[in-house]
Amino acid sequence: MTSQIDQFLLYIATERGLSTAYQLSVRQTLDSLEAWLEANGITAWDDIGTDELSRFLSEQKDRGMSASSLRISMVHLKIFFRRLAGKNIITADPAEPLLPPRAEMHLPETLNEQHVRSMLASVDRDKPLGRRDLAILELFYASGLRLSELCGARLENLDLDEGFIRVTGKGGKTRIVPVGGKAREAMADYLKNERPGMVRKQTSSWVFISIRGGKISPERVREIVKQRAKAAGLEQNVYPHLLRHSFATHLLQNGADLRVIQDMLGHADIATTQIYTHVDQKGLKAVHRKFHPRG
In terms of Cα–Cα distance, which of 87, 86, 68, 82 is closest to 25? Predict the structure, then answer.
C-alpha cells in the first residue's frame, strides 16, 4: 500500500505540478487511511469499498475533524482511487459514490444598534481627523462596504446629492450603493471642513486619505474601528467587517428584502446573503425565550 501512495504523491508532484503544501495535505490523508486500513485488517486495495471509506471518514469526524477538513480529505481520496482505477490496480472506484459532508454554518458576529450608536457618538469631530473617522464609520454602517471598497472609494464615484457611491468589489465588479442621510452629512462635513487641509501635491482622488495626503490603508482603518470601539466601552472584538455584518442584519430585522440586501452587499449568490436570515432567526428565538411564558 505504501508503494502506491508514494507513486501517487510522485505523480501529483511531477506530472500535476501541485504545490508542496498540497502534497503534504494529501500525504496526511493517505497515511491516515493506511493506518486505519491496517488497524482494521485490510491489506489489499481491492478489499476497500465505499462502506470502508465511509467508516474511515466517519471515525475521522468522531475524532473532531471539521466538515471543511473532511471535504478536503474526501477530495484526496477521490483523486487517489480514481488514479488506482485508471491504472487497473483496482477493479472499481470505491470513492466515486462518496457524498461530501454538509458545510458548517458559521453565523457572522454583529453589533446591536445601540453599540453602533455608541461607537459613532464616541467620535469628537472637533479633534484632529475626527470628521474623517466619523465619515468612515458612518459609511461602513450606512452602505455595508467591504474594507477594500471603502479604502478604494474615489471622489468621482461619490454623489452625495443623490446619496450614492459606486464601488469596485470582488472580481472587479462595480455596484452602486446608497449612502444614508447621517452618512451623507458626515461625508459632506469631512469633505468640506477637513479633507482640504489634508491634501498634498501627490494626493489623488481617494475619498479617505491619511494625514500625509496618501490613500488611507486598511491597517489604519482597522485601528480607527478598534479605537472607536474601545472609546465606546465595547468589550466585543470589533473590526471593519463587523460593521458590514451589522448593516445587513439590521436591514433584515427592519424588514428589508433579502434580494435588495444581496445587491447592496454585492453578493453574487443569494445563498451567501441568506446567512443573515439565520442571524435574525437566532435573535427572534432569544426574544421568544426571554419574554414568552413558555419560552
Answer: 68
